Amino acid sequence: AAEDNVAELKMVRMVIGRTHSPAVKNACKAMIRDHTKQLSEIRQLASRFSVDLPTAPNVKHQALYKNMSHKSGRDLDRSFTGDQLQDHIEDVNTANDEVEVGQSAAVKRFARRAILTFAKHEQIWRGVAMKVGVPSTFGRPTAEQILNGKKIGS
Question: Which residue has the higher pLDDT, 43 or 150?
Answer without folding.
Answer: 43
